[in-house]
Automatic annotation (TrEMBL):
This is S-acyltransferase. It is an enzyme of class 2 (transferase). It is found in: Membrane. Belongs to the DHHC palmitoyltransferase family. Residues 128-166 form the Palmitoyltransferase DHHC domain.
């Protein structure tokens, strides 16, 4: 039921619904870079002479290639989408699963409470129910309105790469529960892309 995303390479690549904006981003980066390489860098290389001169156009082209790779990798990777449920959870099961307690004053049966208390490292965390994905969002998970999916450790939706910036971009790992977080994350993801 995830009709919004574009899947490529047998589901290994997941692009957001606005992934075409990557073409604009690429042209905005590559046009000035190509002009620099074509009309400036070789003249600079001549002026500077050997041994450092030839590195000017090479470095410019390498930076361009690296930018392109990072942009496509960011745009095409699963940011940490939480798989949707096909049917809402059973209110009876919620009380049995032990890890959470129903909110005080919530209807005892039949309807799903809008929030649940979940214990994380001995602390009580309120988690909200997502009606679109039919699940209780894990802590720090948010629903992206552009992708129409719940995304773990959601930071923001980046229009330049057409993808959510979330745990997988930040940690670079495939396991989103990993604690290897980098603090420069939210500022670097967009500027690198
Ligand atoms: Zn959701
Ligand atoms: Zn998104």
């Amino acid at each position: 039921s995830c009709t919004w995303q574009k899947f490529l390479c047998g589901g290994r690549c997941i692009f957001g619904p606005d992934a075409n904006s990557i073409y604009l981003s690429v042209s905005l980066i590559m046009t000035p870079l190509a002009l620099f390489v074509a009309f400036v860098s070789f003249r600079l290389a001549e002026l500077m002479g050997k041994p450092l001169g030839p590195f000017i156009p090479r470095t410019a082209m390498a930076v361009g290639a690296f930018d392109l790779i990072v942009l496509v990798l960011t745009s095409g990777r699963d940011p940490g989408i939480v798989p949707r449920n096909t049917k809402p959870p059973d209110p009876e099961d919620l009380q049995l699963d032990g890890m959470a307690s129903p909110m005080a004053g919530a209807p005892s049966s039949g309807t799903l409470p809008p929030t649940r208390d979940v214990y994380v490292n001995g602390m009580v965390v309120k988690v909200k129910y997502c009606h679109t994905c039919m699940l209780y969002r894990p802590p720090r998970c948010s629903h992206c309105s552009v992708c129409n999916n719940c995304v773990e450790r959601f930071d923001h939706h980046c229009p330049w790469v057409g993808q959510c910036i979330a745990c997988r971009e930040i940690t670079g790992s495939s396991s989103c529960s990993s604690r290897r977080r980098r603090s420069f994350a939210s500022t670097c993801s967009c500027s690198a892309g």
